[in-house]
């Protein structure tokens, strides 16, 4: 094993100068793209994005399905499960999702560089870090009730939320592993096993919910337990596939002690990835919290919650597109093909515009009926109809920035994107929401207008960042980073 690794290591290092020269000649000679190139790239991205969108929607649906079952138990369990789920997303799921996103850079570029064995090493290293992080996060979930009460939430609802989150703790560790396994397969363009396992898991989850909530009458505990078991079912299926499929034979060579090396480098990128994603996710949750301070808080909170749920559902499409462009950019940069990365970005921008325009049209067309899916009250239905045009605009901007952020993850720009998100949402977005809602008295619509301001600033900053990028230099950086990672891993 060690001899093999040394021979793999010596080859790219000895050919470093030749590789850099090859990069410069390769990228400078290609200034335009043929129609065939564009069509071929579009096919690759649709092939990638389709299953990734489905995976995002299916995995997102697990919590929603459990909450739907809890909704038949009464208002108090429903409120507790909803609050607990929101708290779990902020304090757990978004953090692990962000940390796992570092693999989009590391595994994606390693796969492009044909350093296939490094995918398994990077993934195992991520598993160790995310599982370790899940321990303190689980302690936060265990104390959900006390934390929510200290934040001024209703005691009864907080107690239900605490119960819900405690029974979801086993699933937190499965979710950590799932983020790593998903990125491991995604970055080598092997997405259909993820789609199949997520589909089966969703079907199994319906059965779990029915059995635990209604048959065994575990109530809210059963709904949370169903989520935990479903995540473990998904992990089990992917582990079996990865260890048995010939498609993963070169990228997964079993457990290796090399994963213990150079953990600090992974942590640097993973923390930046987590900050980048959490800053964005948390800003949307803050809008719902702010709605509780408005006049008629029950109406405002209900409508903002419906708006946020709608936004997250549409956002899953953008997550799939972002994952696809992240994979394509990281793969191309990893093999030193700067122009391939540029072509991938251009094609995905066109796809994002088409997808965003379609979402805008559909959102506006269903604005008068969408509220009826959530409520029978005319006041809520009419308010949701007024919010829908703002949702349409935010969905368009959110989809566009998600694609540009995905390209950023493919390049390893998590630090820069984190600062962009900090400025966009917490210097512009949230203050604008407060200004529109509480100073100009526009209410819940004002809160969402502030989010649109933040999305606009984020989009402009990301467009500028991509436009000013020297892609030849990014390709050379990616090649060097892969070589350095292999050296550090084997040292």
From TrEMBL:
Transmembrane intervals: 46-70, 90-113, 125-144, 192-213, 219-242, 263-284, 304-329, 341-367, 419-440, 446-468
Keywords: Membrane, Transmembrane, Transmembrane helix
One term of GO molecular function: antiporter activity
One Gene Ontology biological process: xenobiotic detoxification by transmembrane export across the plasma membrane
Membrane topology: Multi-pass membrane protein
GO CC entries: membrane
Compartments where found: Membrane
Domain of life assignment: Eukaryota
Keyword Transmembrane: yes
Keyword Transmembrane helix: yes
Family: Belongs to the multi antimicrobial extrusion (MATE) (TC 2.A.66.1) family.
Entries under PANTHER family matching the protein: MULTIDRUG RESISTANCE PROTEIN
Family matches, as NCBIfam families: matE
The protein's name in its UniProt record: Protein DETOXIFICATION
Organism of derivation: Cicer arietinum (Chickpea)
The organism's taxonomic lineage, starting at the top: Eukaryota, Viridiplantae, Streptophyta, Embryophyta, Tracheophyta
Gene of this entry: LOC101500523
